[in-house]
Amino acid sequence: MRRIAVFAICFFLLLTLSGVKKSFAEDTGEDLKSIIKKLENRIKENTEQLEYLKKKLEGQEEVISEQQRVKEEAQASVKVPKEAEDTGPFAEAKLLLLTPRGIDIDVAIIDWDTDNLAEGIARGIEFDTLSRLSTEYTVGYQFKDNSRLSSSYWHLDTDEDFYATEPNGGKLWVLLGSGTSPIDDPDSVSSHLDFEIDVLDLEYTRPLFESGKLTVSGLIGLRYARIEQDLRATYVSGSNTEKIKSHIETNMLGPKIGVIGRQTFIKNRFFFEVDGSVSLLAGNADATYSDIYSGSSPYRTFSESEYENVFPVYELDVGFGFMPAPDLEFRAGYLVSYWTDVLTHKQFVDDVQEARSVDQGDSVAFDGIVFSVRYVF
């Protein structure tokens, strides 16, 4: 715009000089005062035109400046999520303190009054599965559009041992036998239960909705899971021994979908997050059972079954987090993981004792506190 103003000034000066030259040629007979008078009039007219152009140019510059200001304010009002500021590979580690539920099984009954067993004087002896520490590791890549591609691995291993002897004035009753053993009231029972689960997830997460400090993201992925269960129980009566073994291995694979909601606050340093997902896993369970009696008439009972099904898995994780830097975050939350139709020892042993085919499972759940740290490299 300033170049246009300079050009206009030069143009009008040329016009002025041209007008002066022409007037001087036409009015050579006029005196000098007349020539000066005309020159003053021309300069006055050109000065007024220049003032007009100057004001017009200043008005246009103000309009452009206002438009630029509005544009800059609009760009500044667009908040870039923290994830978008740090792209590249990332890693996350989780420490989970979870309680397994639904895997307990009664191994014997203590009866203090043998004449009133039907009245509920006896009580079952079951494994006491306490909270267990487990770990989960995740690696992936974070893109500029806030989407993430990641792979995670979770492993939980819990085992319990139990031992009981026949109480004074009472009896122990066998619960896990096949029914062919002569041992009904053993002197003692010892047992071991092992439950192990491995979960491998491949996930892609992408923001679906953003409003202010709230971000809602969608998740799609693939999950593989393996659950292995071992049960051993030994009943001793004098010199006679009965050993029960049950083993179940379940392999599952299927799709996983979910939704993640995150609300940030206090200068985007803190956040509240809800993570829910559903997995639909197809797979099968291979189960074996053996009952070995070592006594006056030794024998062995063996049973093998295969169980196929679709296993829905529901998970909900709610927690709070802190981000001391855009590339680092800490989080603490509570997780509930609910697995349905999983074959357990309780259901399998009962089917063997009743001579039924295995056609249904039980529900297994894990719940507890989760701590995690994530870093973008």
The unreliable regions are: 76-84, 117-121
State the strand order across the main sheet: 1-4-5-7-8-9-10-11-12-13
**Separation of the first and last Cα atoms:** 48 Å
What is the typical, i.e. mean, pLDDT?
82
Form type: rod-shaped
Content-based structural category: alpha+beta
**Architecture per CATH nomenclature, i.e. the level-2 architecture of the largest domain:** Beta Barrel
By DSSP, the count of extended strands is 13
Share in β-strands: over 45%
CATH homologous superfamily classification of the largest domain: OMPT-like
Topology summary:
Blueprint: H1 2-26, H2 32-77, H3 82-85, E1 88-101, E2 106-111, E3 123-126, E4 132-142, E5 148-165, E6 171-174, E7 188-211, E8 214-237, E9 240-265, E10 270-294, E11 299-325, E12 328-342, H4 345-353, E13 362-376
Antiparallel strand pairs: 1-4, 1-13, 2-3, 2-6, 4-5, 5-7, 7-8, 8-9, 9-10, 10-11, 11-12, 12-13
Question: What does this protein look like?
Answer:
With 377 residues, this protein is of the alpha+beta class. It is built from four helices and 13 strands. The chain has helices spanning 2-26, 32-77, 82-85, 345-353, and strands spanning 88-101, 106-111, 123-126, 132-142, 148-165, 171-174, 188-211, 214-237, 240-265, 270-294, 299-325, 328-342, 362-376. Strands 1-4-5-7-8-9-10-11-12-13 form a ten-stranded antiparallel beta barrel. Strand 4 and strand 5 form a beta hairpin. 23% of the residues are buried.
